Amino acid sequence: xxxxxxxGPLSDADRDAVAALIHRSLVQWYESRLRQGHRFxxxxxxxxxxxxxxxALDPGESIVARGAGGxxxxxCFTHERPTHLAIGIVATAPExxxxxxxxxxxxxxxxxxxxxxxxxxxxxxxxNLDSFSxxxxxxxxxxxxxxxxxxxxxxxxxxxxxxxxxxLVRTAGPADAAALAxxxxxLQGIRRDKDLAxxxxxxxxxxxxxxxxxxxxxxxxxxxxxxxxxxxxxxxGVAADEAAAAALLWRTLDLLRGKxxxxxxxxxxxxxxxxxxxxxxxxxxxxxxxxxxxxxxxxGVVFPTFLPESG
Length: 311
Ligand SMILES: CC(C)(COP(=O)(O)OP(=O)(O)OC[C@H]1O[C@@H](n2cnc3c(N)ncnc32)[C@H](O)[C@@H]1OP(=O)(O)O)[C@@H](O)C(=O)NCCC(=O)NCCS
Prior knowledge:
311 residues, Aminopeptidase, binds coenzyme A
């Protein structure tokens, strides 16, 4: 295929084209395979949040595939962090699908990870075997399983009593960034201080960060929410145990009364999953963490997200 694949910054016009491409590819893939194109709405404009946030957070780290006339046929966002290279979203134009474009973009990302001497990580849908296979064939190994839960939070609040530690949850501020980054490193082996600083002093999008202090004052967990109207989504976050995860999730959902929201929970966090069902949540998709070199010592409860997909 006559096409160039390269890292580069995204101009204003590029960002509109990238938003249109991501929207079109998702609608086409999910509609043609699962009759679920409607999940992504009928407007491309909300998808501009991806290039806008990523150019603010990781400028120049996007990989773009361009046709002979310069038109954008594929995009793959990479996020360099001290412990790993995160990848996502990946999308190719439907009419260019199956011709190795995504593979070429991923190979460039993996070459960068090798140069850095760090593993590459992503979270992929288990309903989308094209993407699962793409990553798997390139050397990614599946790890933890996650269920995507959708919940319309009642205007009167969640049913039933709040989890025991919910009253201890508080809003995090810039001064918490280092402790939250350290907690994630100690539990999961990954560092993303940059993301936490970004969430706590947002320059694009709109994030809210809650944290749960332990008895010694050190955090037991944190949970970020993107409150941007284009991408209302819970995550990323991490908690030392399920009780902390449930408390953070409850308080986050309580702030979203009257709104419908999606969040990912590890299938292994059975108590939190059961609590989410009791609050009315329904499974809408399954995802799996994939890495070129998993961290075997990872522990705690993880809340992945797709914006920014940097875990
Ligand atoms: C997923 C997506 C990016 C794939 O793009 P693409 O350009 O069609 O992918 P490629 O042609 O580069 O490669 C697909 C690879 O997966 C392989 N593959 C696909 N289905 C497979 C299966 N069931 N079993 C084994 N391999 C499979 C192909 O053979 C190919 O590998 P190869 O080149 O080594 O043969 C594209 O379908 C898309 O944009 N989908 C919508 C957006 C999306 O869902 N993105 C992923 C989530 S972030």
